[in-house]
Amino acid sequence: AERRRQQAEESHRQDSTKVLVFTLLLTLTILTIWLFKHRRFRFLHETGLAMIYGLLVGVILRFGVHVQPDVSNSTLTCVGKSRPSSLLLNVSGHLYEYELRGEVDSRSSDNLPSATFDPEVFFNILLPPIIFHAGYSLKRRHFFRNLGAILTYAFVGTVISSFVIGLVMYGCVALMNAIGQLDGDFFFTDCLFFGAIISATDPVTVLAIFSELKVDVDLYALMFGESVLNDAVAIVLSSSVVAYQPSGESSQALDGRAMLTSLGVFLAVLSGSFVLGSAAGVLTALVTKFTRLRDFPLLETALFFLMSWSTFLLAEACSITGVVAVLFCGITQAHYTYNNLSAESKSRTKELFELLNFLAENFIFSYMGLTLFSFQKHVFNPVFITGAFLAIFLGRAANIYPLSFLLNLGRTNAISLNFQHVMMFAGLRGAMTFALSIRDTATYARQMMFSSTLLIVFFTVWVFGGGTTPMLSFLKIRYTHTHTHIHSYTHTHTHTQETVGTVGRRDTAWLFRLWYTFDHKYVKPLLTHSGPPLITTLPACCAPVAHCLTSSQTYEVKAHTHTDTNIHTHTHTHTDTIPPTMPYTQINNNYMDCTDMVVYGTLCVVLCCAMLCWMLCNVLCGVVWCGVL
Amino acid sequence: AERRRQQAEESHRQDSTKVLVFTLLLTLTILTIWLFKHRRFRFLHETGLAMIYGLLVGVILRFGVHVQPDVSNSTLTCVGKSRPSSLLLNVSGHLYEYELRGEVDSRSSDNLPSATFDPEVFFNILLPPIIFHAGYSLKRRHFFRNLGAILTYAFVGTVISSFVIGLVMYGCVALMNAIGQLDGDFFFTDCLFFGAIISATDPVTVLAIFSELKVDVDLYALMFGESVLNDAVAIVLSSSVVAYQPSGESSQALDGRAMLTSLGVFLAVLSGSFVLGSAAGVLTALVTKFTRLRDFPLLETALFFLMSWSTFLLAEACSITGVVAVLFCGITQAHYTYNNLSAESKSRTKELFELLNFLAENFIFSYMGLTLFSFQKHVFNPVFITGAFLAIFLGRAANIYPLSFLLNLGRTNAISLNFQHVMMFAGLRGAMTFALSIRDTATYARQMMFSSTLLIVFFTVWVFGGGTTPMLSFLKIRYTHTHTHIHSYTHTHTHTQETVGTVGRRDTAWLFRLWYTFDHKYVKPLLTHSGPPLITTLPACCAPVAHCLTSSQTYEVKAHTHTDTNIHTHTHTHTDTIPPTMPYTQINNNYMDCTDMVVYGTLCVVLCCAMLCWMLCNVLCGVVWCGVL
């Protein structure tokens, strides 16, 4: 018992040290970021910086520290026929339970200090706050103005890009096979998987670079919106490819039926996540509207946090993608729930998620740097890496240029060729690509992918990330340095509103008008304290229902017409008077582009129909999807 | 590979569901708390509420859900001679690694859904934010005024209480042994361990109940201060008992040498944690003072968070107690670093830790409720439980009444008998006791302790927690309901400052004056932007050093003399002017009681000396404490 306690303590101490290393790494990164900001040095971006520090620590761990191989860990070797997930060991009558950790490579002899985390940590702890934050801070009119273009790039473009990359890589692998460079299996589905994971551009880096440069708002909206949404597409696409690659190892060629099922999974998961995330947002909005929870900002913030987190957990428990659900949840929370929160909760939730996002993203990037040296199964293949670099350029080009051409046919203000070049250039790969590729590094193909992905991320973040500023000057796209951007959200909002006059109102089409009116008249008043009271918008026959659904605050809001958006108004007394809320005239100005809105509406309808059809189809065919759910 | 992936997915889904249950439980608790606050119903406290919900879920899981025993988990049984921490399984050439999870009870046949967490989660994730928050929000003059009394209760009192409880329980166990009620070993060290873990009163419940009731500030300071600090004592005391109970199972009687070593460990760990925590706080203060990080509140908050967390990790990595280190770190951060932060960071850090604390404490209490039904090895023994209840009353009495008598000899304003009764009555047991008792439930004695502890926590929180209000009225101690207390910290601060006039200034003794002057003249100016500039306080020969250590802001602060403590002053522009800081006349008013200060100073000196002596002694004796470090 004594020895076991000591072992447990030892392992606990090692774990603590491991986390401590990263904490200190982050602290160092923060101090350097401050120094860079202070000295206005902007050629190396903060995420690039985090990676460099990670690299340094990786080098130290790799070449500086030598760990004694732990003798007590490998004294007993059992021989069995199967590989159960847990094992019972009988030592003189006592039963001890052992849990499967994974396959051990018998070839690897060196004992590196394993400063590695379970890859699931990235998906379950680090990514959700980043993605939620992206959704939550997305409440910008320019995003909604360009929604159609964003959706086109994110959905259609990413799928095109995945396939192009997959095909190029297939050619590359065939070449490698021919010249004898391939030491293991690499199937067509692996190529497609690689295409799916490498197609996602990173919102983290885009957000960081562009928000500081204050570029053209439309370009910013396009870049940011695309990079957030194509993360969702990449996750779902890659898991579809994995889920429906034939399980027999020999028949790895993609057959038609598997392809179709993959498509079904893709649509079902995407729409399921959309529905779940939006539902959670709507539920939170209802709860915050109909309780007077706003009197207690702490409770309100806690509820908001828990509900958003539940969305992720619920989605994971239902086997659909939590990260995607969290994205849509964030958008819904920003659009509806945010209006119900008390002034203090508004700032609290923003600051909380801003901090979580900051810590998580810096952690991911320093970990990335660390992995280059600490990961033990790297397969660096020059041909494959060259092919991958070529493929991502071709894939990105096949996404941006043709789709921009098509979009410009329907847009009143065209996406200029310069904008297209920037979008092409600034398609950095980041956290999501890394998380997807580290998730499974069991086979030779996956290891090669992981190593190449790592190099691609490094290259794009350092070279393209650092080169964005010169690129923008070269292409003569106006930008100004805003030194204080990081300071608070309200700054950004005012920036956007200042420059909004440059883009005129578009003509509106019936579908857009329909949705906008519906949202403004019914959904917003139902879910939030803003908008016109339901009594005035609903027909007379529904008056009792409307009365019961309309909060007393809605009327009072109408009286206010001040435009003070400063969220820190602490002077009011909290117990008796109602805190001032934003007047609805100011909230409901997410006017959208007509063509964009048509695309968006159609997409929603198509997704929902697709999900229904596919589930029906599966039930009929006897494939038990519901069993999985 | 396919089957393994499915298993991994299945286990991931189960984990998600498990966490989801708790998230929803917390959401429910929050809504009910709001309802209770809204309806001003205060006989059931929110922590009691969380426990009730936990209990309900426990009942449902216990009697409502039936889990199929997982066949694939127990197919292979190896027979071995030792019990290694990891195992290699050879399946047709492939090696799989298995990790030890723990001993399986061969008697337990029923498969309960295991909604259990690793006990380490409590210590490493949930407790640190609670304890840090306690330290961070401790910046109250009344705490420092009563520091001597608090330290006496917390240190001397808790040790007395532990021994009294240990002795009573030893008698109880002897009785049980005599009447044949004992089914396993229960040694004297186990009794002492029980005494150590059950002696810690809970800051969570005390804080929650008393801060809402706005009782006498001195009583509040005594209760709160004691309960925070005795957690630290309980942790260190219990781990000392465990560490130095003789490893031979037969010789469990405590011998003199082991006792002495235990005492050495106790003092060394306590002073080590104190030094480490304070050092981390001082370091953060220096970093925030000498960089202009305050221009970027996000970076500042992140740094603050990471440095505080590092303290915990560093302490754990050094094998001293992280929770204790975090407590002292919190106190130091509040005393020094807080003054350097920008106005936005001040509110951000407070709100962040308030939220973390709220979530963690409610999680612990709902988990406690759940455990009563979901824990599978309960040993409820009526004699032991009765004995335990008797023991905690005796122990508490032996702590409060004699020490109060002694303290009153030296105090100018005596601790009245009514106050003593309240302190006796409101000594609730909570999160820390639970966390300590769940940490190891391997032996029969520990299981019996755990079950009894659970009942004691339930009883004290529900009965004593709910009965505090009537008790206070009965004892005629003035209190008023402050409905909006939870709202923000600044409220509390103003409350305290309003009532401060009632307690007059005490006479000051030389040791106190020495420390206060030293802190005010040198430490505060060195570490923070407040206090008089070092140039004026240091002798002339040190002028260059003083110049270099004095920030430009210190001078400017002197110009300000406004007393506006509202921390949300967002109207100033951030880039060019310096944000207004609190004038030092207001910050340095933690005037302390002279006797208290003497006790505090002596204690610090004794602790440091003890640690040095003990380490030296160990080095000489060849006991390799340094090897453990």
From TrEMBL, chains A, B:
One Pfam family, short name: Na_H_Exchanger
GO cellular component annotations of the record: plasma membrane; recycling endosome membrane
Domain Cation/H+ exchanger transmembrane: residue ranges: 29-472
TM region positions: 19-36, 48-65, 150-180, 186-210, 264-290, 302-335, 355-373, 380-398, 418-436, 448-465, 598-628
Localization: Cell membrane; Recycling endosome membrane
Main location group: membrane
GO BP terms: regulation of intracellular pH; sodium ion import across plasma membrane
UniProt membrane topology term: Multi-pass membrane protein
Gene Ontology MF: a single term: sodium:proton antiporter activity
UniProt KW keywords: Antiport, Cell membrane, Endosome, Ion transport, Membrane, Sodium, Sodium transport, Transmembrane, Transmembrane helix, Transport
Signal peptide: none
Keyword ATP-binding tagged: no
Gene3D superfamilies reported for this sequence: 6.10.140.1330
Coiled-coil intervals, chain numbering: none
Stated family: Belongs to the monovalent cation:proton antiporter 1 (CPA1) transporter (TC 2.A.36) family.
UniProt xrefs under PANTHER family: SODIUM/HYDROGEN EXCHANGER, SODIUM_HYDROGEN EXCHANGER
Name recorded for this polypeptide: Sodium/hydrogen exchanger
Organism of derivation: Electrophorus electricus
Lineage, uppermost ranks: Eukaryota, Metazoa, Chordata, Craniata, Vertebrata
